[in-house]
Amino acid sequence: xxxxxxxxxxxxxxxxxxxxxxxxxxxxxxxxxxxxxxxxxxxxxxxxxxxxxxxxxxxxxxxxxxxxxxxxxxxxxxxxxxxxxxxxxxxxxxxxxxxxxxxxxxxxxxxxxxxxxxxxxxxxxxxxxxxxxxxxxxxxxxxxxxxxxxxxxxxxxxxxxxxxxxxxxxxxxxxxxxxxxxxxxxxxxxxxxxxxxxxxxxxxxxxxxxxxxxxxxxxxxxxxxxxxxxxxxxxxxxxxxxx
Length: 243
Description:
Layout: E1 3-8, E2 23-24, E3 27-28, H1 29-38, E4 45-51, H2 57-66, E5 69-73, H3 78-88, E6 93-98, H4 106-117, E7 123-125, E8 140-143, H5 144-153, H6 157-160, H7 165-168, E9 176-178, H8 195-208, H9 215-224
Parallel strand pairs: 1-4, 1-6, 4-5, 7-9
Antiparallel strand pairs: 2-3, 6-8, 7-8
Helix pairs in contact: 3-5, 8-9
């Protein structure tokens, strides 16, 4: 069984354009996401999936410089972009990672993949409700046949933009597994959608001085600086609409 992590990345974020190229300790945010994802031991390959928009040539150039596998596809139909990249790289299992999560933890990736492999599941995730991990540690693992079924059947452009809602919102059709943390830390927001989000993760990186820290180390830093969590507390998370 071939397990491929696909990291979606583009420069056209509406709230924080070019966020994936912002510097964290001197390297692009996307480079930090890729490096942390690659440390997971249960992945056979890590692939970047960007768009055909010329603005994303910068991401392609970065990938070539770093030696990453990269594919280009639809800007808005993320489900199609994922399926096409997964087909090219012969994935049996796809691990979805988003490029705005520079604190993504390889241990959480491995634990979620292991849980998926431990039963007859179509989908497993660290972010299924009720959430327990900080936002920004989201890992989704989906069987290729389930992803292909969603690709064929999902008629909602809004859902296709978010790749997996057709799967996790149909528990009657797919076998789902929630992979929780041992304790509830869901109040923390560690993804990057806004300037405030970036300021928080930048402070965490600067405090730790490296990118190979675990999420519990990041939590300890945030708890040692109680005011930091207030930096992005008012940021409203975009939600997936009804079909």
